[in-house]
Specification:
The protein is an alpha/beta fold and about 130 residues long. It has a single domain, classed as Transcription elongation factor, GreA/GreB, C-terminal domain (Chitinase A, domain 3, Roll), CATH 3.10.50. It has helices spanning about 10-20, 30-40, 90-95; strands spanning about 1-5, 10, 40, 55-60, 65-75, 85, 105-110, 115-125. The strands form two sheets. The protein has a six-stranded mixed sheet. The chain has a two-stranded parallel ribbon with strand order 2-3. A hairpin with a 4-residue loop joins strand 4 and strand 5.
């Protein structure tokens, strides 16, 4: 995995995700744990508005194909592909967590391909909207 800058995670998201990792056997759990281990923790009320946090709706592009997508990054219990709600334990969820608009990351997909994803926008971020309890 390569990235052009560090990633930021709110203290609240970090605490919830660590608890999630203690109670899961997902194949992507190790990747999420690695990402959290290198994250810079930021108090929830101080996170910049251009950072992908939990429950954010994020627009991104797959650099290899130019395909644009929009997803909401959620906890596994709220995942629903038909509503574009993608679990943080999905490979793309792990990849996008903590990135800022303009940042890109190379990330292995389930089929073994290495994809480069770039965040192009944050359509909704709970912290920016004052939704502190999501």
């Amino acid at each position: 995995m390569t990235m052009n800058d560090s990633l930021l995670v709110t203290d609240q998201d970090y605490e919830r995700l660590v608890l999630l990792l203690q109670n899961t056997n997902s194949p992507t759990a190790a990747a999420l744990e690695e990402e959290l281990g290198r994250a810079t923790l930021v108090p929830q009320k101080e996170i910049p508005k251009d950072v992908v946090t939990m429950n954010s709706t994020v627009a991104f592009v797959a650099m290899e194909t130019g395909k644009e997508s929009e997803i909401t990054l959620v906890y596994p219990k709220d995942a629903d592909v038909t509503k574009s709600c993608i679990s943080v334990l999905a490979p793309v969820g792990v990849a996008l967590l903590g990135l800022r608009v303009g940042q890109a990351i190379k990330w292995p997909m389930p089929n073994g391909e290495l994809r480069q994803l770039q965040v192009t926008g944050i359509k909704y971020q709970p912290e920016a909207s004052g939704d502190w309890e999501l």
